[in-house]
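Re-run with default settings, no changes from the original entry. Doing this only to confirm the output is reproducible before filing.
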Amino acid sequence: MEGLRPPDEGPVVRERVTRKRLAFWDRVKFLLLFTLAFFALVWTDMADNPLLPFRDALYERVRSGTGITIMVLAGIEVLRQLHYVISEHASWYHRMWTHGVFGGVERVTRRLFSDWTRFRLVRVFKWLLFIAVVALVLGSVLDTSPAMALFQVPALLWSAAPMFLQVIFILFIAVGQFAAIFWFLSRGGVEVYYPDDVKTRFTDVWGQDHVLERVKENIVYLERPEAIEGQGGYVPGGILLWGPPGTGKTLMAEAVAGETGRPYVFVDPGAFINMFFGVGVLKVKSLFRKLRKLALRYGGVIVFFDEADSLGNRGALAQGGPGFPRGGFSHTGCNGFSYLSDDTRWSVLRSGLASSASSEGEQQIRKNRIMYGGGMGGGGGGMGTLEALLTELSGLKKPRGFVNRHVRRALGMRPKPPPKYRILVMMATNLPEALDEALLRPGRIDRIYKVGYPSKAGRVRTYEGYLQKVKHELTAEQIDKLATITPYATGATIKDMVNEALITAIRDDRDTIGWRDIIKAKQLKELGPAENVEYIERERHAVAVHEACHAVVAYRTRHHMEIDIATIEKGSGYLGMVASIPPEDQFTTWRSHYESDILVSLASLAGERMFFDSDNSSGVSGDLESATAVATNMEGVWGMGSTVSSYAASSRLGIGTPGGFGKGVTKGDNNDLSARRALADRIEDNLSEMLERATTILKENRREVLALAHALETHKTLTGEDVIAVLEGRPGPLIDGTVYADDQFLTEVESYHRAALVAHQGHSRLAASLPTRIHPEPVLADATPDTPAPAPTGHEIWRRPDPPGHPNGNGNGAGPAPAPPPGEIPHQRDPDPN
């Protein structure tokens, strides 16, 4: 048995002792060629003399010089094939010719000529042989010498030119139709903006300074590539900007083009979506031909692919895109869980998704994912479009010009290398997980930046930038307050809000934006107009008490967030809401935060039982679901309970905790059931304790709950400052809260509640009327940033969109558009459980 060869030795190549046997076609192809040529000449003789029989024509052709030449060539070919047959069977004969005759000639020619020269000489010899055979045939046909026959070839071609032209014209018409169709289909979707057309500069991009600084580096390398290429590196040529919509990705690409003075090529998201396969490939190649021309003419070019996921959706994100759930998941938590912190809402939504997905639904999701990833055969543009883009981004660049590529190579000269095309590729997407990994690898997309929601300082700068374009009377403190109460606002939403405030002012015959205008625009844009419906008295009071309980417990226990708004006006997906916002950017969530979330969630159940004689509505179901989800994660996932191990990890690993079966434990055993019951019991104990705490807080603040419920019934919508003014008994921007410090008035409010309770229990009309000792107009004429005044009517309420990309992992998921608000996901309360 042969052992392993040393590492410095290659594989053993055994030399053949005989020639490799030829295929049958290789043996007979030249003989067939000579036979066909001979009988073609015989046919020519018979065509010239129709009375000449075939035998006589064959005899005359054999006696002619052309026939003898063809037979001699055929005989030589027979001898060559005989030589091959002997070499295939006799090893000594094959070795003699290989090493003796041809080997000697090989050694001599290798000393005289290089391999490339010998190849070209052999090619010239083959062409000469072919021309000689053609000359012999033509000479015999034209009845002249072979040399003269070659000189008559141009005349023959000229005489046949009309026929050739007709054939070429027909082919041109047939092929040209298809070429024209594909040419027209490959147009469109690409817009070129020349340096003077782009007016955007970096000073026009606000709130994204950290990303802007990194993008500026690419401009330095684009303008001075020798700074990095001279040190042996290469210029980064691809940037991916990903993040939520409206954060300034497209604006940033325009600013790059405006600052560099280079052409800016905008590629429409649907440019590569076509009806026919292959058109997308043509568009990609046409696009990069244009980019190379622009790069050579202007010294560089910027190409921007907007919504790049429409083109590159062949795989999954490899460089760490967001892992948040997406889509319109609708949840029925009370007030849309607007009273919960961001992390809590996302946890509830994720739990709801996991629990509601059946096996059939999961299979359908997997099918949809498969179709989504491969339905277009490699990218949104059709078969081969993404692959063509990948090749253009990092493929070999061939030399330019016909003379450079073909003539110089034919003359044995090396073509000139292609120039370095300075092309900066920028892409933007809000769905980075749909991009192909091959597209995101270094060399194609070298840098990946997240363009997230602006920080508070960024929002302040963005507000200042857009307010400078209009007349306004907002102070710096008011702008700072506005940035605080609009977390996760993007540049697009801020621009739209300022514009809506201007429209509001113009509608009131003013040309200057005030604080009331900006607040009214915020209400209208984030929540939309409230539905023009009226509750019956007892239901209105029940909704007000429900929301007041949430607000009071949030005010007493949740110190890491502030109440933004409270309303009982019915919207498209909710009966009322209490929304909270963080007073500053927060990136961590603690156990005390989650406990306050549970307390606020359970406040509705505790309050309805306390104020309605142990009765409660079905509207608390969502609150209980959210509280249970948070308590479960605290106990089994977040390390905030009595255990340390993670039930989520144990379930995935199947080691006997809920969701799996441990070693030696079968499905029928009680170990797993006991573990489930233990976890459920601890969660129930925690929730029961939290419910008692919430009940205690509400009992201690009964006056505040009824006072706030009365204010909500009177004004329907209250800002956060007004809520606090009512709870603390002091003046607010809309509500004079001092009246709720009057014991006599609170006695009237208590009496009104008892009448509402009687109407509730008897399902009858409310006999008492709502106490009306509060002046409905704003107390403060000029609201300060600490006491922002809402619209005069108090009927415009708002919610804030909760971004999927929030650092705490929170988002909305409140269902279909318009997107649910950031601190407030709508909740539908059903007074009748049936």
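Residues 315-333, 352-381, 657-669, 774-834 have pLDDT under 50 and may be disordered. Residues 353 and 559 are 30 Å apart (CA to CA).
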